[in-house]
Amino acid sequence: MEIEKPKPQRLYQVWRGSNRFLFGGRLIFGPDVSSLFLSTFLIAGPALAFCIKISCIIRHRIRENKPALSWYSVMIVAIVLTMMDMFFLFLTSSRDPGIVPRNTRPPESDETVEMNTPSMEWVQGRTPHLKLPRTKDVIVNGHSVKVKFCDTCLLYRPPRASHCSICNNCVQRFDHHCPWLGQCIGIRNYRYFYMFISTSTILCIYVFSVSWINIVHEKDNVWKAITSDILSDFLIIYCFIAVWFVGGLSVFHLYLISTNQTTYENFRYRYDKKENPYNKGVIKNFQEVFFSKISPSLHDFRAFVQEDEVMVREPTDHNFMEDSSSSKEKIDIGSKCGENNGLTLPEILRSIECDEIEENLKHEEGDDGTDSNRLVSRVEQEPDKHAIEIDEEIVDYVKSDQTTASVQA
Ligand SMILES: [Zn+2]
Ligand SMILES: [Zn+2]
């Protein structure tokens, strides 16, 4: 009897991230892709209503033997803007945002022996004999930048990369995870994301202006036009509300682009307080976002993967950092914080609750969402202090204490 060979699998079929794929791995979306339907509806619905309104005006003018050519062009512009908006929406949400390929095993410790690392923190995962520093310093444009080890992807994140807790991938030049598009915004789709929000803003202003002109046009009785033209009223109110959202976002991203920051960096590091190593001047920053070549995807989602690769990939599903910290260690942290057992914490730690420290230890690497690091936000409230540096000091301090306490026990 012949043993049936397992069917060869493609990368997207054994994908470790939370992404969803369409058309046999040709399109990649985030796990919350369903929100794309809502976003499409919120754009296409009012755009369709606007076109219906314009076609009514055209019919009315033709019936009255008035010239309607200008209204045809109004309609064409609206259709072109809507199609462009949809196109950018699709480009942003359906392509690889710049996912960093995971390692199947942690990097060799030899690679890191020579490394200059100020951190006393070590990564000890599934391979206890292997010791890797949790952070290492990389020189970017003459500035020293700290890169962190990702426990899920088993790699040192490239500078500006961050792990998206929703998609469960490290993404290059991570900006944010967009819940409206259900996709990460990273190095490969940021340009399209900006085109999308700016086109949405223009579309909003356009529909608002035309609808308003349409009402004011009724010079004889503007109030009558307002009360009778419900569709135009709806479009005016809708676009007025929407433009604050998309317009505000466009302006904010214009500022980020001109200063070469990502949303994540802006929220977390606040470069206006310290020097931004990526800032090359306004013109070059714009060139980088809009005119540089988009790097090819580091994945071929349709490529067949080796069987052993699938096997190795299997246990890496969860964050081994969490696994490796035994319940005893967790109790150690708890007891240390809860009771006064002789350990003195730095002044700054005294106001912080124990749960927050433990939470921070658990999530420090696992989910790097801008709002996840409550400890950082607490510390940021302290005047004249660098939030990130202090954050790392605290974590280093608590963790080294934890080691000491475990040894003593
Ligand atoms: Zn990662
Ligand atoms: Zn994401």
UniProtKB/TrEMBL annotation:
EC number(s) given by UniProt: 2.3.1.225
UniProt KW Plastid keyword: no
A cellular-component GO term for this protein: Golgi apparatus
Domain Palmitoyltransferase DHHC: 147-268
Pfam families given in the database record: DHHC
Domain of life: Eukaryota
Chief location of this protein within or outside the cell: membrane
Record flagged with keyword RNA-binding: no
EC category name: transferase
UniProt-annotated location(s): Endomembrane system
Protein name (record): S-acyltransferase
Gene that produces this protein: LOC105162949
Organism: Sesamum indicum
Keywords for the protein's UniProt record, in alphabetical order: Acyltransferase, Membrane, Transferase, Transmembrane, Transmembrane helix
Membrane topology, as annotated: Multi-pass membrane protein
Reaction equations catalysed: L-cysteinyl-[protein] + hexadecanoyl-CoA = S-hexadecanoyl-L-cysteinyl-[protein] + CoA
Lineage: Eukaryota, Viridiplantae, Streptophyta, Embryophyta, Tracheophyta
One Gene Ontology term of the molecular function aspect: protein-cysteine S-palmitoyltransferase activity
GO terms under biological process: protein targeting to membrane
InterPro entries associated with the record: Palmitoyltrfase_DHHC, PFA4/ZDH16/20/ERF2-like
